[in-house]
Design brief:
The protein is of the alpha+beta class. It is built from 3 helices and 3 strands; from the N terminus they run βααββα. The protein has a 3-stranded antiparallel β-sheet.
Length: about 70
Amino acid sequence: MPSTETVVRPKEAAKLIGVGLSTIRKMAKNGVLPPPLKLTGDGPRAAVGWRRSTIEQWLNDRETAALAK
């Protein structure tokens, strides 16, 4: 069954998280965010994105960890 879940590109992911585009790129590069999906190509110019549910789960996990402190 094909998935109809939305894929968010870095610009939209930045808006969802509340940071700038350069911060999203740094977070992805440093492993702070889950690895993005490679949508096209390879190398530094490849199109990437995340499933919306992945970003939302990452945010929920961060919130849960903050509340547990």
